[in-house]
Specification:
Spindle pole body component; rod-shaped; two-stranded antiparallel ribbon; mainly alpha; 22 helices; three-stranded mixed beta sheet
């Protein structure tokens, strides 16, 4: 049985807390578990005694040092945060080796003073090992490791207030290298609205190359990502992306890391040695909130920097309420077959100029038409498109189509009333024919004027709210409210379907009367049948309008009764 002296045992015990050192006092079995070698005895010149009592306090540290050494030697795909932790462990273990090396050969060390002399080494190794436990797992993906590591990181920041100064100082040193890496991640998000590619696989938010305008979100377990922090990040990233899209890098945004430093205060680590969990979470939220508000305010200033927004909104009111295009559309329906597209566009611009549009404003509007429909759309520049988006324009255009359909039907009936020239075969039924035309023109003309008035009122109410908004999101919310009202006007759901069906039927009868009036009345033409149909649809309009209190259609009951 090997006998060793006290000096040799001290040297062996120092090997147990050193890095990369083998010790004959321990051996591994076939399964890799550590076992104490019971063959060694301590001989002091007079007697022998077992070494187990002296070795056991160092075994745990030996295991932890070896696991940390294996961690920094691991190969394969490693995330940025893992690399940061690896680099810190490499630096610390290098310092640790130097400090342990200074203990070898010291004459003042004994078996009874060695545990206390190495206590701080073992405490720091234990703290770093426990902090790194999620990174040591082999059955998880890199993203899952980082998510668990962040949660562990917050747990240590939470409990360090109850631990020794040495443990708190150890965590503080890790925070000094780890938190700046997190700030780098947030800096890029709030500066450009995207996640830097090196961080794309490890945090909650990431950027999909197919849709870079919106941050993508992963499911995580870490409590770092509170609801308010998520909301600020998504809002700030959206504003930053829009600013860069509209102005490139010409506009400088204050970095997230600077807001964070203002929140925690100067020289925080020097004053406190480590950052408490509540301070870290609170400071991240404060910095995110300020970044989001600053970028939102800057974006809205870009939108309202000149009078373009107000001009476009007023132009939309004039065109989509029908005021500026009613006469033009009447002329177009009459002469479209004999006009080329260039003439139609020029006539459209001439009409706009009569309504106060400048030449540059006219060029902002495009007109396309085919046999069945006319489309009028504005060319809206960035960043105004974030307020008046394509969905809002489409809703406006749908309402314009609806109002133009009623205008066209009313114009058709007005032309018939003006001419009053009936074929000889209908002359005996002249009074009945005039009654039909007047009876049909009344609801159509009333609906046409009602719709134009309502559209004008909607625009007049919403435009000041948009211009008085304090952010793009608020202004866009007003426009979405306008879109909802406009969509309800042309919606064909539930009871609205019956109203629109009745209106379509009345307009189709007006079209049929016009065609018959121009081309001749055949033998199959029956005034009585048409009068019955018109009466039926009018009754349907009246009945449905009574059940739609609070909508514009409720006015039909008053106007037609």
């Amino acid at each position: 049985m090997p006998r060793i002296s006290e000096e040799e045992l001290i040297s062996y015990l120092l090997r147990l807390i050193d890095v990369g050192q083998d010790c004959p006092l321990l051996s591994r079995n076939a399964h890799g578990s550590l076992h104490l070698n019971e063959n060694f005895t301590l001989f002091d010149g007079r007697s022998e005694r077992p070494v187990a009592t002296h070795v056991r306090p160092f075994i745990r540290c030996y295991q932890q040092v070896n696991e940390l050494s294996d961690l920094i030697k691991s190969t394969g795909t490693v995330s940025v945060l893992s690399q940061v932790m690896h680099e810190y462990l490499i630096r610390y273990l290098s310092e640790h080796c130097t400090d342990v090396a200074s203990l070898y050969g010291r004459k003042d060390l004994s078996l009874y003073t060695l545990p206390s002399s190495t206590r701080n080494f073992r405490i720091v190794i234990s703290v770093l090992h426990n902090l790194s436990l999620p990174l040591l797992r082999k059955h998880q993906s890199e993203f899952e490791k980082i998510d668990d590591f962040l949660e562990n990181f917050l747990n240590f920041a939470l409990i360090m207030e109850t631990k020794s100064k040495l443990e708190a100082y150890t965590i503080g040193r890790v925070q000094e290298v780890f938190i700046p890496t997190m700030l780098q991640y947030f800096d890029h998000i709030f500066q450009y609205g995207t996640v830097e590619h090196i961080f794309n696989e490890e945090f909650k938010f990431y950027t999909d190359e197919k849709n870079r305008s919106t941050l993508q979100v992963r499911q995580v377990r870490c409590r770092l990502w509170s609801e308010s922090l998520i909301r600020y990040i998504l809002s700030g990233a959206r504003s930053a992306w829009r600013i860069r899209l509209a102005a490139g890098d010409s506009i400088e945004l204050k970095k997230f890391s600077l807001w964070f430093e203002e929140a925690v205060g100067p020289n925080y680590f020097q004053r406190i040695h480590f950052m408490r969990e509540n301070v870290l979470l609170w400071s991240l939220e404060i910095a995110a909130e300020k970044c989001a508000k600053e970028s939102a305010s800057l974006l809205f200033k870009m939108v309202t920097n000149d009078s373009s927004l107000k001009e476009i909104l007023e132009e939309c009111q004039k065109i989509y309420s029908g005021c500026a295009v009613r006469e033009f559309m009447t002329e177009l329906f009459q002469l479209k077959s004999s006009m080329c597209m260039n003439d139609i566009v020029q006539s459209f611009y001439n009409t706009l100029k009569l309504w106060g549009f400048s030449s540059s404003s006219c060029q902002r509007w495009t007109l396309t038409c085919d046999e069945d429909s006319v489309n009028i759309r504005p060319k809206i520049p960035l960043p105004i498109t974030y307020i008046i988006d394509e969905e809002v324009i489409t809703a406006m255009m749908d309402c314009l189509h609806f109002s133009l359909k009623l205008d066209h039907a009313a114009d058709i009936l007005a032309n018939i009333i003006i001419q009053r020239k009936l074929p000889a075969k209908l002359f005996a039924k002249r009074r009945k024919f005039c009654y039909l035309v007047d009876y049909l023109a009344q609801p159509i003309s009333m609906l046409s004027e009602l719709l134009h008035t309502h559209l004008n009122a909607l625009f007049a109410r919403k435009i000041p709210l948009v211009l008085s908004s304090r952010s793009v999101e608020e202004a866009h919310g007003v426009m979405l409210s306008l879109k909802m009202h406009l969509s309800n006007l042309v919606s064909r759901k539930s009871g609205r379907l019956l109203i629109h069906s009745a209106i379509d039927k009345l307009c189709s009868i007006a079209e049929e009367l016009s065609n018959r009036f121009l081309e001749g009345f055949g033998d199959d033409f029956s005034l009585d049948d048409l009068i019955v149909i018109v009466k039926k649809e009018r009754k349907l309009l009246l009945g449905m309008s009574r059940s739609m209190e609070g909508t514009v259609f409720s006015c039909i009951n008053v106007l037609l009764s």
